[in-house]
Amino acid sequence: MLKRFPAPIVVLRDRLSRLVDYMKEHQLDLCCITNPAHQLYLIDCELNFRVQRVFLITKEGELIRIMAKDESYDHPVELNIEVKEFVNYDLHEWADAHDNASRLTQQIISALKPRKIAVDFSSLDMTKALVNSQASVDTIDLRPYLREMRLLKASYEIDRIKYAGEINQYMYDYIRQELTDGISEFELFTKMNAAIWLKTGEPIQLFGKCDLVSGSRSLKAGGPPTSKYIHNGETLILDLFPTINGYHADNCRTFAVGEKTQLQVKVHEIVKQALTLAETMLLPGIKASEIYHEVSRKLKEIGRGYILFHHAGHGIGIEDQEAPFLIPDSSQPLMEGMVISVEPGIYAENVGIRIENAYLVTRSGPVNLTAFRDDL
Fold it and tell me: Do residue 74 and residue 176 come from a single domain?
């Protein structure tokens, strides 16, 4: 069984209070949250993309949750959320869950008579319901403020991310053990999936586009596993990010298949040095762009006009990639409490190698949340 790290009620109430203060500051009457990840962040419910759910917050701080009738309530009872239910399934008549959710949302919003609403715009159905609910309603985008709120991680969020990294470590250890000449990428991936499900006793969601690429495919930095066979002399890039308790791990390892070549060893060493260099810069006040440029400069030592063509890292949390982003033009300063991945990589001359770790930013220096072996 997987470990659970429940969000403290005091943390959730503080987030909701900050949101109500934001509403007062911007003269908002209502917030409408349709993104399951945002709902998880605010009320610690299940991360559910299967059924449409809506979470409303009034300017008075009243909480309303719109859910399917046959769903169990998975939010903390201490938050005193009023639940409104729509029909999700009917044996005698087909029920369109999205239409029913949109219709109920529209009815509730119309009854509240808001003049100005903040929306996270994550669902076209819900956005349409908002627009149609009242002709004079004014809507603004809530996503920038939610991203700002999510920059700094609470202790339970750090625990979830670290635990997801431990699951990731098992995945990499298993693949390292099973990696042999002639096995296909897809066979390796499916074996790993079966092993982790059996170990945890629960299905583990690998969110988004996980990378498992070998040989010439590694030069493109990433991609899903295919039927390609893996052979001695190649490198295998693994960038897997399991979602545990709604939070992501994100770290990358590269394995050499069979005997390591001199070029593989050289590239790996430069990538490791770039990662170590970035670690020294993970301090409050350092700009994200500064880290990108230093990592990129170090990687250029491989020669051949090499340029890092992807970000040098990013934040991790309820999304596998979130702010801050270590990119050339980002002026975002690092802050204590951020969780950031750093992922230098070199992809040249049929050798692709990337290493990625996740770090907690503190005043005394970074804490590596994925401190397991990263050798070839």
Answer: no
253's tokens: 């390892």
Does a structural domain hold residue 299?
Answer: yes
97 and 185 share a domain? no
* Matching residue, tokens 């996503």: 143
Strand order in the sheet with 322-325: 322-325, 313-315, 339-342, 357-360, 367-368
373 located within any domain: no
Q: Taking 70 as the threshold, does the pLDDT of residue 208 lie above it?
A: no
Based on the domain organization, do 348 and 238 belong to the same domain?
yes
C-alpha dist (Å) from residue 256 to 259, 275, 340, 352: 7, 19, 26, 10
Evaluate whether residue 33 is within a structural domain.
yes
Do residue 139 and residue 173 come from a single domain? no
CA dist 335 and 362 (Å) reads 8
Judge residue 125's burial from the number of C-beta atoms within 10 Å of its C-beta, 0-12 exposed, 13-18 middle, 19 or more buried: middle
Terminal C-alpha separation, the chain:
31
* pLDDT tens digit sequence for 142-165: 999 999 999 999 999 999 999 999
> What is the CA 206 to chain-centroid distance, rounded?
11
Q: Identify the domain boundary among 101, 128, 149.
A: 149
pTM above 0.85, yes or no: yes
Number of domains in the chain: 2
SS (H, E, C) 284-320: CCCEHHHHHHHHHHHHHHHCCCCCCCCCCEEECCCCC
Q: How many helices (H) and strands (E) does the chain have?
A: 9, 19
pLDDT, average across residues 80-109? 86
Please state, in angstroms and rounded to a whole number, the distance separating the CA atoms of residues 230 and 239: 16
Residues 6+ apart with CB under 8 A from 347: 218, 219, 220, 221, 353, 354
User: What are the residues whose beta carbons fall under 8 Å from the beta carbon of 217, sequence distance 6 or more?
Assistant: 223, 226, 228, 352
Residue type, 366: P
Instruction: Tell which of 100, 131, 149 closes a domain.
Output: 149
The reply to whether 114 and 220 lie within a common domain is no
- Model pLDDT for residues 236-251, shown as the tens digit of each residue: 999 998 988 999 999 9
Q: Is residue 376 a part of any domain in this protein?
A: no
